[in-house]
Amino acid sequence: MRLSSFADYAVVLMSAAARHCGAGAGLDPATNKYVKMNATTLSAETGIPLPTAQKLVSRLSAAGLLESSRGTGGGVRLSRPPAAITLADVVEAVEGPIAMTACTEMGAHDCSLEQDCRVRPHMNVANNAIRSALAAVTIASLAREVTPPPFVSGEVEKRVAEQTL
Fold first, then answer.
1. How far apart are alpha carbons 155 and 18 in whole angstroms?
2. Pick the residue with more confidence: 81 or 153?
3. pTM for the full model?
4. Which of 11, 20, 64, 130 is exposed most, by the fewest CB atoms within 10 A?
5. Distances (CA, A) of 39 to 55, 91, 124, 134
């Protein structure tokens, strides 16, 4: 199973939004709300093509993950704190319900095997595990700067030093 490029871009865009218009540093003391950005600045920061960033902002706003406003002082910001938005929320906003197969919901597809299917219950277990894993990761955690574990960094430097001797 693989996320589409569109879903991947949505995650990248939302983590950038969390850093600038959803993280504590982005709080406007006058309004006590997070500062706003726009699709152009999000595109420039993330490298996501502007038309794609605009589509994502529209889709994520429609899903209630971003608040948008037009005009002077307009832009977008997270609709709730970054710790309250999960990967599952973002993926479902742009891709629809997370489902490994079409048969995760009874009667929601055209399958002649549905009545006697022995696989469906097992696929639901797998599907629920994937959704739970995505729901366990918040945009706040993705917005944090990641540093490699010390042993990885030290090992790489050690191997490079050994090879140059």
1. 32
2. 81
3. 0.75
4. 64
5. 9, 19, 37, 25
